[in-house]
Prior knowledge:
By secondary structure, the protein is of the alpha/beta class. The chain is built from 3 helices and 7 strands, in the order βαβαββαβββ. Helix 1 (9-20) crosses helix 2.
Amino acid sequence: MTEIICENEYKTKQFANNLAQILTKGDVIVLSGELGAGKTKFVEGLLNRFNLQNEISSPTFTIVNEYKNDQISIYHFDLYRLGDIYEFENIGGEEYFSKGICIFEWGELIEDILPNDYIKISFSKSNENAELRILNIETFGNKYNEIDFKSFSN
């Protein structure tokens, strides 16, 4: 596990933007953490890498938002309102895994059906500093084993 400290929302977005440079079609990222922990700011930073930052909206009421440019499709899911994994399967959620980059807020709900290779980022707030966020990054499978996540925090 790798721990990244982001002093403010700008640093969270910057980290995501830097990480996005290695992401390609079929990559899956699970974002976990309480409300207001920085998950959506992370997505904003990631979208910025693809010049889609002005497109972001919360998928809370639609389950998934699709962002697309001539390079890639990015699927931003918010699974907070889903009752169980079967609801995700019923909407054809698994079909998205290979279509573009998938980002899942509250993705722990579907971890049992995720592809073998994915990145999980757990966000937490600091008790001492309201702006600071702690990102704990875990990788699953082998695809991301050689990535130095700390290099993206500069």
